[in-house]
Amino acid sequence: MNLPTATSVTRYFDNPAAHITLDETARHRRRMRMVSDRLDNGAAIVFLLDLPQARLLRHGDGLVLDDGRIIEVCAAPEQLMEVRGKDTRHLLSLAWQIGNRHLAAQITDTAIRIRRDHVIREMLIGLGASVEDIDAPFDPEGGAYGGAHEAHHHHAGQVHDHIHFDEHEHEHEHGHRHD
């Protein structure tokens, strides 16, 4: 049986044939067999995702099937923390701290959303942030090199070291400890 195949993504469409609801991790894909959410008649559309390169599928993207139908991507709610600062300058400082730990982050006009993590929560509260648990779709910023999401996750007790070279060709070490 040949499955319908999605080889491209669009943001411009009306009346999708179906929806597929995925969390942020499951939305970072290139090639795999997928199954849409159930339609009103109880059936689902089984299809092959076959994109030229891995990418983060965003909420509202349309997967264009080779038969012309479109499957709309829906971001599933996830357990997140919404981080707020005392003012814009404070929020920027908190964003720097989050970025320095290579955490995937969704930036809004007034807050930063990240995955729940008790160690990061305590650090942020210690820095004066307001942190609220929410369940919401997670749509983090893309990476600086190519837009794909490049964040990696740390586990409690993991030490993570980086060595960076600047334009003067000497190295800087950055050690992070997450307890």
UniProtKB/TrEMBL annotation:
<keyword id="KW-0963">Cytoplasm</keyword>
<dbReference type="GO" id="GO:0065003">
    <property type="term" value="P:protein-containing complex assembly"/>
</dbReference>
<dbReference type="Pfam" id="PF05194">
    <property type="entry name" value="UreE_C"/>
</dbReference>
<dbReference type="GO" id="GO:0016151">
    <property type="term" value="F:nickel cation binding"/>
</dbReference>
<dbReference type="InterPro" id="IPR007864">
    <property type="entry name" value="UreE_C_dom"/>
</dbReference>
<keyword id="KW-0143">Chaperone</keyword>
<dbReference type="InterPro" id="IPR004029">
    <property type="entry name" value="UreE_N"/>
</dbReference>
<dbReference type="Pfam" id="PF02814">
    <property type="entry name" value="UreE_N"/>
</dbReference>
<protein>
    <recommendedName>
        <fullName>Urease accessory protein UreE</fullName>
    </recommendedName>
</protein>
<dbReference type="InterPro" id="IPR036118">
    <property type="entry name" value="UreE_N_sf"/>
</dbReference>
<keyword id="KW-0533">Nickel</keyword>
<dbReference type="GO" id="GO:0006457">
    <property type="term" value="P:protein folding"/>
</dbReference>
<dbReference type="GO" id="GO:0005737">
    <property type="term" value="C:cytoplasm"/>
</dbReference>
<dbReference type="GO" id="GO:0051082">
    <property type="term" value="F:unfolded protein binding"/>
</dbReference>
<dbReference type="GO" id="GO:0019627">
    <property type="term" value="P:urea metabolic process"/>
</dbReference>
<comment type="similarity">
    <text>Belongs to the UreE family.</text>
</comment>
<dbReference type="InterPro" id="IPR012406">
    <property type="entry name" value="UreE"/>
</dbReference>
<comment type="function">
    <text>Involved in urease metallocenter assembly. Binds nickel. Probably functions as a nickel donor during metallocenter assembly.</text>
</comment>
<feature type="domain" description="UreE urease accessory N-terminal">
    <location>
        <begin position="5"/>
        <end position="71"/>
    </location>
</feature>
